[in-house]
């Protein structure tokens, strides 16, 4: 299917004039036997915070969701089994993968032949959904071509890259930077790309689409990564340690500081702690301090404190520890340092400037510390 330029451009003329001409959106879902399922509508608000809407009313045999978005939002509609004994692992407890769509403050209809075909549902309404569906068809074509190239190559396969369709998405972004779909695809890849690759792709995106939540997420990440790149003065961190005492980087000047971004829920983080214990034991007396910055996913602050403290005790971490969730509305260290992959470690010199950044098990940090301390 050959795609014409105007297909990607017509939405640009309409989206900002008509997407918010109504006071809100109405999504009508036509589906047989929906009483057996729990539906959900997922999207992000303008602050990148997830919104999961499950409340609907029934009109003329349709599920009707109503709400309001403050910006053009990529969304997904899906179903979960009410009777979980019917669920399988294939689609994470759902009869079908969710259906992606673009949500604006207008009337949208979603029609499917069955719960097991939700991902192939027909979407009507919203000037950008036609553009997005055409883009998705093009993406399917690119994915087949790029996967065929990978299969024919003898180069090692990066399973995460394959799962995320990285080559196909990068190709689409390069060939169709003006498409709103390119903003979404780049957003899904933002934790996988280098800063230089991210900046190069982001610079070519349509300027107006950079202001929607997915575009802002990419732009914010670039800004935060640049602010904490090698040679930059580290952003000050003012938090309380596990005993309630104030902790800030200024008081740690004169020592090398390793910032460890982790969480009790993160398997690779917990697996890296024996290595950190060995590093701390070896270099603490030489001038190294470690500052653990935990990000927890509990429902309440008290839940987060409980899981955080339990993990600190279980893993025997005897260095400085702070909880990012505490006073997060005042200062969010994870966001400020552009951390989107756990674990992430940032090494600071004695003057508080960034020396290096590591993700994953960070075994390469041993070489850097040996170089610094001569051990």
Mean pLDDT over the full residue set: 88
Largest sheet: 5 strands, mixed
Low-pLDDT runs of 5+ residues are 1-21
Instruction: Write out the strand line-up for the largest beta sheet, numbering strands in chain order.
Output: 4-5-1-8-9
Summarize the amount of helix as a percent range.
25-40%
Topology as a string of helices (H) and strands (E): HEEEEEEEEEHHHHHHEEEHEHEHEEH
With helices defined by DSSP (H or I, 4 residues minimum), what is the helix count?
11
Number of strands: 16
- The amount of beta strand, in percent, is 15-25%
Could you tell me the radius of gyration in angstroms?
24 Å
**Alpha-carbon distance between the two ends:** 61 Å
SS-derived structural category: alpha+beta
- Specify the overall morphology: globular
Helices and strands, with pairings:
Blueprint: H1 5-18, E1 25-30, E2 37-44, E3 50-53, E4 57-59, E5 62-67, E6 73-81, E7 99-103, E8 107-111, E9 122-124, H2 127-152, H3 159-163, H4 166-175, H5 180-189, H6 195-203, H7 213-227, E10 239-240, E11 246-247, E12 256-262, H8 267-283, E13 288-294, H9 301-315, E14 320-323, H10 333-336, E15 344-348, E16 354-359, H11 365-373
Parallel strand pairs: 1-8, 12-13, 13-14
Antiparallel strand pairs: 1-5, 2-3, 2-6, 4-5, 6-7, 8-9, 10-11, 12-15, 15-16
Question: How would you describe the overall organization of this protein?
Answer:
With about 375 residues, the chain is α+β, with helices and mostly antiparallel strands. Helix content is about 35%, strand content about 20%. The chain has helices at about 5-20, 125-150, 160-165, 165-175, 180-190, 195-205, 215-225, 265-285, 300-315, 335, 365-375, and strands spanning about 25-30, 35-45, 50-55, 55-60, 60-65, 75-80, 100-105, 105-110, 120-125, 240, 245, 255-260, 290-295, 320-325, 345-350, 355-360. The strands form four sheets. A five-stranded mixed beta sheet has the order 4-5-1-8-9, with no helix packed on it. Strands 14-13-12-15-16 form a five-stranded mixed beta sheet, with helices on one face. A hairpin with a 2-residue loop joins β4 and β5. α5 crosses α7. The N and C termini lie far apart (about 60 Å).
